[in-house]
Design brief:
By secondary structure, the chain is of the alpha/beta class. The protein is about 40% helix and about 15% strand. The protein is built from 19 helices and 17 strands. The chain is globular and about 75 Å long.
Amino acid sequence: MIRSPEDAAALAGFMAEPGDDASCRVAAWFHRYLRLIACAGPADALAVRRALQSADVLNHRSIEAIDLPGVLAVPETAGLMAAIQYLIRNDTHPVLAKGYSRRLPLAVRARIAVMENPMPARVSHAYDIMNLRRLGASWLWRCGFLDEARRLNQATTSYLERVRPAVNGDVRYLTDSWTFAIGHIVMLAHLAYAVRHGMTTYGGLKIFQGAVANRPLLDMVDRQVAALDIVPEQECLPESHLSTDLEVFGDRRLSHFEFYEQVLQAHPPDGGALLNAEPSQHALVERLLAACGLPTGRPVVTLHNREAGFRRSLEDGSRDAEIGSFLPAIRLLVARGYTVVRLGDASMTPLPQIDGAFDYAHSPHKSAELDVALIATARFHIGSSSGLSLVAMLFGVPTLFVNWHPIHLLPFGRRNWIVLKGLRDLADARQRIAAADYRRYGSFARAVLADEGLALEDLTAEQIEVAVEGFLRSLETPDNPVGSARLWAASDVGELLELPPDQVRVG
């Protein structure tokens, strides 16, 4: 930590080696940057992008001169070091042995981790190598190094396929990062379903005890999908949840949602959904509506719009939007005979008073049970790129996802629509609506997009209203037999332009 002028002086005192001026000057800057983000908290995506771009003039010798015990142990900075080591191309340093040791400086460990076929001697070494690779690929992905991120992701998947059986046997262990967020529980449910039906390269799944975002939902997964094996932490190779990881399906390596979509198409669940709403959930919702003076005979539409208050976003608000842009659509739904229930938490912007709409997020009736029951029993859901909205997919509840970002995780489900946030060119104010533009830029944080000359734009109230109108019409037509959701970009004039998901997805 920088606590005094002496600390600051020491930070500025990193000296370059003679004869290596350009590389070591950049390394000196990189060294200071690592210290600063370790002190300041979550790293800014644009600053990380600049660090990764510096790889063109860095070499392994100058990077290995950096040794900050403790500071570089922070996952974000450790992942950045791995990404830097993966990008360095002007290597004049002698090739290291691939043997991994925790006694080595992190810069050296990161270099070994991203080499082909590193050799872990212990379980802890395999764990370090796996995480350095995964975190490095995540940073590459977020900061625009897409080809490199794909290659490192693929290599990491191959590494896990080779090492996991040797360490864990026929079991895949997961940390509690798969249960401490409600959207992660949705993914865990699909993964457990895949294991149950023999569609994975391993035969068992065990999850470490820990934080659980929504116990009633986890219990439903245990009852209706597969009995979950929750175990104490132990020596093994446990995997944390990371959205940029790949899953193996046959001979293909797919993003999380692509994998789950393929699993459900290969083995459709009874009734079309992994979970079925239970009688107690219907009764719970009816009691809530009656207690709040809302009619119990009208169909309920649930609405959730991600805001910044619940969890600090490392994507600088790229997944957030303002609830005010939903108000015309809410009034439209009420006029069509629906009761609109707004989900969320008390940190969110309150809804204005609208007859027929209920701001459950600010209600004293809010509970973990009702959070799930309301979605499970809804006629349909309107959501954003947040974990709570993914719960609807578990219950087969048709969902209109609006303001979706990022595109490396596109929801699935044949009754679902996804309307992406807009991309606008800062130079000529032209809106980018081509599938290729979303494929290239659709996972970047706002600051990184601006560096590319683009702005990420929330949908307007008019665009959301048009999307709701179109989605309502789609619900009146026969069910689409194809498993993929429909994907849309909204034009400046309020039209929805359909995009082929396969041309937008990246992996």
